[in-house]
Amino acid sequence: MGAAIEDTELNFWQQVKEDWITHGRDWTKPGFRAIVVHRFGVWRMGVQPKLLRAPLSIIYRMLFRKIRNGYGIELPYTVQLGRRVIIEHQGAIVIHGYSTIGDDCIIRQGVTLGNRYLDRPLDAPKLGKRVNVGAGAKIFGDITIGDDANIGANAVVLCDVPPCTTAVGIPAKIIDTRIAGGVDHQR
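RE: above sequence
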């Protein structure tokens, strides 16, 4: 659970270095710190036997709570987190434990990736590659956001978003940025 989405697996320290570079080589950024704690949580699950993993799990739980309570970024180790993901700002970021976030995505402050119905607690959003999620956006349910999609600030997304489109509004409506003359999110 929680392994990188690409075929090429990096070890823990390679991932941390890549995340550090992605976050502008600034180890003090809350988003970088949250991702490092996530990566540590995933790594420690591979430690065997379970008795050796126990102290690492205690450390992970302490670090997870410090990030959640101090920076307002809730990113459980069970999230399927891709490579080079940027958490741009801190504050009120809640990621459902069964969410998937593809490579090169950007998550901003106030974003929620969560379930939509109480009777389906395991339903969670899946973000493709290079998804740009605007501040305050809410993405709910077992839905898929396509590669290179943009989610506008404060949008409430309740259905799938096709690749290379933008979702804006409450509830979100899809805009094809190639037709509307918008700017696609590219790195």
